[in-house]
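Title: Prediction job returns without error message
Component: structure pipeline
Severity: low
Priority: P3
Assignee: unassigned

Description:
Job completed but the reporter wants confirmation the result is attached to the right record. Sequence as submitted:
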Amino acid sequence: MPFDPRFSITPKINKTLIEIERVRGFLDAIKLKDDWLADLQKKALILETHYSTHIEGTTLTLEQAQGILEGKRLPGINRDDEKELLNYKKAMDFISTYLGKEDPITEALIRELHKITVENVRGEKADPGNYRRIQNFIINSKTQKIVYTPPGPFDVPPLMKDFVDWINKADDLSPILISGIAQFQFVHIHPFVDGNGRTARLLSTLILYKTGYDFKRLFSISEFYDKDRPSYYDAIQSVRKNNMNMTGWLEYFANGLRSQMKEIQEKGKKVIISENIMKDLAAFHLNGRQGRIVRFLFLNERIDNEQCQVLCKSIKRTATRDLTSLVEKSILQKHGEKKGTYYILAPDIKNRIRDIKGHA
């Protein structure tokens, strides 16, 4: 039988979709400078890459993930975890090439997405890009009990064909709901030996990117999932417990996206405030690197010399000179000593931010 998902658009879903559309409108209306946008996108990419792989069992901290994605070679970490992280980042870059494209989703595209995600990791036991030829099971990591048995391997090809056909024909449905349904159905079919969760989240994001719901690539839906994993798993299981009715899952999925949109909106407002303050700082004649440092600190708590080098693509001596100059101008405040040295916005700058917020 062709794939025909069962669900209802409840008042809760409808309200959430309206709120997401409002933020989408806000993002379309504001004009973010290229450097602001690049910094925000970079941070969102780090968060999505870290949290999506973390859900699947990698043990890297967010700080370690950021270091790896910035090109650092960190000692004492699991190299498979590192490779999974880098693969996921590569997969995110891959789906970014489909922004706004009208090309249909194909099984070949999904296979390629899976291949990028699991290639050269853990002995390639995931059989990159190929549908499974064995039965697999979803097991509770704590109790070791089977919580779900996916369809048999011979059922996977026809199920995937029907599923992909549905994605390309569901024109009368909100892309957000298509994205949510696709994420669940993919996990439900579990077409690959391993890497299904990551590929499902990538496919879900790809659908949003293709349909104009990329939200400037500033969101990380996996962060919402990983911060309360039991709720994430319960939402998925709720479909099976409710005779394959996806309503509960879609309420959860849409709410997760809404929470991300609210965070993006707050960041957008912060950027607008920060731009006003940057105009005030024009009298200090900051060079381009110093401007990037200050903008970075409007969105992040602190910066050190190494981060400054990466941010400004400069050498250590240049970064030290820029940071010292900003301290002398009372724009930054220095803390710590030697390797533990870091910099934050000076109290006067923080007070200006608070004052503008208070009048906003």
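Comment from assignee: result matches the submitted record. The domain at 11-262 is CATH 1.10.3290.10 (Fic-like fold).
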